[in-house]
């Protein structure tokens, strides 16, 4: 007999997400992803100076602030056809790389690992045997028996206290958990270490961006970082070398811990390479520009659909600009047809949850009328299909590690899965860690040539202009769309990664990626839907970017003066 299970809220994510699944014979037969907040910043921006937009859009989220700031200034620059000094491009790239490394590390360890790791099995582990196992997997210098014993002691102390804190509500002992006590201990030790190394990545964002979250160094036309090799109050060689050292530490953690742990988990849950596929149309935009015009990039973009691969050479590719629309058939907004973002509307119309009608504050983005999955998996598959050398290098490294641990031959087709999304994110982290040193070298070499420029002043035309700013953010393709008239914002729309992935059904009743990925998922215990959480968490949901606050009764909570 079919029954419906509601998980509200989905925890260990940013924001508020509800997932409903219909279960028949312990298998998911239908799914609904519902965002339970409303985002209204687009409406706040109308009539404002376009140069201020990035300061507002950072407030879409309290974590992924940097990515919205970057997409916003790029949207204005695209509308004005404004070139960016090389130093500014490289500084921006380094900030984006550091932010993404922080995000990927936190996602796997703090937000997803406990879907696979049974904390209450850790007291049964043998630290000496765990250390020996760890040394067989990686040369990581912090896999010693003493460090592992310290991690085990922490768990034992929490368990003895009777107050499990953040570990209180895990599905411990669930039949879908199958790691040995020693592997659980190793993963938990790295969970604790990850807190240190994600912080090192954020130090880089803070050094270059002046603070984090909500960086302060951007402006349409460049950055506000003063470069002066003789000044202690400017970007000098001492700071650049400090950044180099921090990147090196993070890179070592990514390659010797994060990538290895993901491959180890994958080796012990091989059936999860067959679960969670869902939408297999993939979208990514090129990123990390290498010149002032944005005509070449280090990361490739494109679209994989039924017609095969379509490559985007630049972030302003006409195929991308024309292909994006947003549908509100099942979202809490007014409107009766899909709209291009430059013509988009964000007018709320809350009607209450109804799975047959409207049930989410997230719109349904579509590319050429079809749902598309975005995120590291999309970027890795698109890069691999294009023959992108760096992507193939790290896909190969992951495949070799999985094979060495388990004998499994990891094929690209296996990445269409829940575990595939985790593998792709670790692969992307390895790529970014390598690119960090390249872009730091590009910056220091350009400064050494005597180029200290960081800003080109924008000039606004008298006629109406449109622009789109894109970034391949940690969760996938992010685009900000702006219409400027009389030097003011006429319209503004943000189409963000979690909007693509968490989208409800569209006018054709096609599922969004979260929903589609849950179909056919087997549940060992429907009353404890761990398997649903594994797949949803594999996307790294960030609902705060997809929506914002709302009182369902319609009551005014507060009036806030914005600048």
According to DSSP, the number of beta strands is: 15
Mean pLDDT: 94
Give the strand order, joined by hyphens, for the main sheet.
Answer: 1-2-3
Summarize the amount of helix as a percent range.
Answer: 40-55%
Question: Secondary-structure map with pairings?
Answer:
Layout: E1 3-7, E2 17-24, E3 27-35, H1 41-45, H2 53-57, H3 65-80, H4 86-112, H5 127-137, H6 145-161, H7 181-209, E4 218-219, E5 222-223, H8 237-268, E6 282-284, E7 287-289, E8 297-299, E9 301-305, E10 308-312, H9 318-323, E11 324-327, E12 364-367, H10 376-386, H11 389-406, H12 418-448, E13 465-473, E14 476-485, E15 488-495, H13 497-501, H14 513-518, H15 530-538, H16 543-546
Antiparallel strand pairs: 1-2, 2-3, 4-5, 6-9, 7-8, 9-10, 11-12, 13-14, 14-15
Helix pairs in contact: 4-7, 4-8, 4-12, 5-6, 5-7, 6-7, 7-8, 8-11, 8-12, 10-12, 11-12, 12-15
Short précis:
By secondary structure, this protein is an alpha+beta fold.
Walk me through what this model shows:
There is one protein chain. This protein has 563 residues and is of the alpha+beta class. The chain is built from 16 helices and 15 strands. The strands form 6 sheets. Strands 1-2-3 form a 3-stranded antiparallel beta sheet. A 3-stranded antiparallel beta sheet has the order 6-9-10, with helices on one face. α4 packs antiparallel against α7, α4 (86-112) runs parallel beside α8 (237-268) and α11 (389-406) crosses α12 (418-448). It is globular, with a radius of gyration of 23 Å. The N and C termini lie far apart (56 Å). Mean pLDDT is 94; it is low at 548-554 and 556-563.
